[in-house]
Amino acid sequence: xxxxxxxxxxxxxWNDPFWRGLAYQVALAVVVGVxxxxxxLNARANMQAxxxxxxxxxxxxxxxxxxxxxxxxxxxxxxxxxxxxxxxLNTLVVAGVGLVFATMLGFALGVARLxxxxxxxxxxxxxxxxxxxxxxxxxxxxxxxxxLKPLPNPRQSIALFDLAFLNNRGLFLPAPVPKEGFxxxxxxxxxxxxxxxxxxxxxxLRQRETGAQAPVGAVSAALIVGLPVAAHILAGxxxxxxxxQLKGFNFAGGFRLTPELVALxxxxxxxxxxxxxxxxxxxxxxxxxxxxxxxxxxGLRAAPIRKLVTMPQAxxxxxxxxxNQYLNLTKNSTLAVAIGYPDLFNVFAGTVLNNTGxxxxxxxxxxxxxxxFSLATSAIMNAYNAxxxxxxx
Amino acid sequence: xxxxAALAAFAALGLSVSSAAAGPTIDAVKKRGQLVCGVNPGxxxxxxxxxxxxxxxxxxxxxxxxAAAVFNDPTKVRYVALSAKDRFTALQSGEIDVLSxxxxxxxxxxxxxxxxxxxxxxxxxxxxxxRKKLNVGSALELSGASVCVQQGTTTELNLADYxxxxxxxxxxxxxxxxxxxxxxYDTGRCDAFTSDMSQLYAERTKLGxxxxxxxxPEVISKEPLGPVVRQGDDQWFNLVKWTHYAMVTAEELGVTxxxxxxxxxxxxxxxxxxxxxxxxxxxxxGLTADWAxxxxxxxxxxxxxxxxxxxxxxxxxxxxxxxxxxxxxGLQYAPPIR
Lengths: 393, 338
Known about the structure:
The structure holds 2 protein chains of 2 kinds.
Chain A: H1 17-49, H2 80-113, H3 118-132, H4 136-148, E1 158-160, E2 164-167, E3 170-173, E4 175-178, H5 184-210, H6 216-234, E5 239-242, E6 245-247, E7 250-252, E8 255-257, H7 259-286, H8 289-297, H9 302-332, H10 344-356, H11 359-388
Antiparallel strand pairs in A: 1-2, 2-3, 3-8, 4-5, 6-7
Helix pairs in contact in A: 2-3, 2-7, 2-10, 3-7, 4-7, 5-6, 7-9, 8-9, 9-11, 10-11
Chain B: H1 3-22, H2 25-32, E1 35-39, E2 48-49, E3 55-56, H3 58-71, E4 77-81, H4 87-92, E5 98-104, H5 107-111, E6 115-117, E7 122-124, E8 126-131, E9 145-150, H6 154-165, E10 170-175, H7 178-186, E11 192-196, H8 197-204, E12 213-215, E13 223-230, H9 234-252, H10 260-263, H11 269-275, H12 291-298, H13 302-309
Parallel strand pairs in B: 1-4, 1-5, 9-10, 9-11
Antiparallel strand pairs in B: 2-3, 5-13, 6-13, 7-13, 8-11, 8-12
Helix pairs in contact in B: 3-9, 3-12
């Protein structure tokens, strides 16, 4: 048997690493697939044998119970699908508000802990160490049971200038009611924002050419707040306020934040902020000392150093762990169930599950929603991270 | 590994799982040497651990009665404390053998969720509790009130129905356990607390100042409470059902925990059949002939259990009312043992 020199020796497929690897991969995929399909069929058969509902028929059945915080119209005659959306929005409210405030408080605390002012630094340290090391569930129960519930009853509310009322039923605020000519206000606001942006752009150009600085912050604030106020006066006060008033058992009218919402939001914000503060501190400390010293040697003051030199570099270290904290906050919002806040997990995976018995379907849907939340959050933050990352050229 | 082998392996797994699930519960209970009973984590009179950590109460005594019938020993029970929200999942998944946790018998729970209710051990109805100083005399004056309620109960659904049908507004404040609900009511988060009447009496004892609270006269629903089992095991279903009927029959025949040994010699044929001195009515249930004797001997008859846990012998002092025997203008009625 003569072989041609230089040509690779002929290898049987079962001895070829490529084909062998492929065969193992396919076999593994088949086994995993069979296990998944088998699990679904098995669960289905067992559920049917026990008379547990297997389909999605419950989705359109009436829910028959009430919820005390609904952002979209809802009544006891609405279908279970409506409960899903009500719960979803309630979860989004807590998660959204929580993310914003936790970020602000967290950055403030992180910078405060690094402050050269001894008192501020120590207060931040004590806060962070205390809050970070107490379980979140305990903190939520503390806020709800020890802080909000002992508030006075509606008839003895704590009133703030007769505008806002705080009692054990929640915080009652005046609710804006648009009247005729209201359209002028959003227009004025839009114009204010546009003018402020234009001014900032002009100021930047001018600073680049002449070095002269303009009071961008003050002018922007005046434009954004001043224009709508002026429009409000000129258009004949098209925005009225519905004042909360004591009526029967409770306050009627106005805008209300339930104690459950407040407790959950405050609990999540204070807890997550402590972790964010540590991330911010780590980020700031990761910037070499020389950067700060060089900026100071150029004559920059503390605020511009932080804004232009330290923070942009610190952000590269801060963002990846910050994403984790955002995901944690959203997932932790399911602890709402402990204090009776009607989030998705509480009303949908709790009450609807109990009323319909469709445990498997509802749990999978709920898990899917939280998975989607988390993946969406991390996709957005990853995109932001890519923008902030060090560009290597 | 081939696909067929995997399928075969999986089919075997599936078979073993389903056979374990469909097997007679009584055999599993005997083999385990213990009954697993789902009970209330804390409602005075129905299911509540005492100062020694022993569960006591009306629903707990029902678990003890089953254990007495099966093992001749009422202590062979493992209690699983379940919230209203978790109770059905625990039963569905086979974590417990029987649920004895003031659960309301409804059509959808049997037809839609695959359960069977053994019997009505307590006829109840939903009511409201409010503070006396609110000067509310009727539930119809509760428009605009905040109402504390337990999640995943018929109570929560009846509440919605009642306020809707009377065109009144309210704010439901929903908690996973009755305990959190009553605590929130006590601190003033709610104007009213709603639950089954029996539970209102029980929960009122937990309040800081029980006398400051009044239970409104309206009963807004029917709440037949009873033990629940999974569908698909008729023998076990019968055992649970007849455990209750044996206790009711014993009361009807005047057989008590004290005199049950004397009654063994009683000439009354009904008593003889109940106590197993004539015929063997326990056999079909997977039990011995003296199954009902064991129940009465160890736990007592229906009236005794009621008085001990809920009536004059307890702090709750609930009257028998519609839970009296049918011979005394009540609804408790047992089919004959023959």
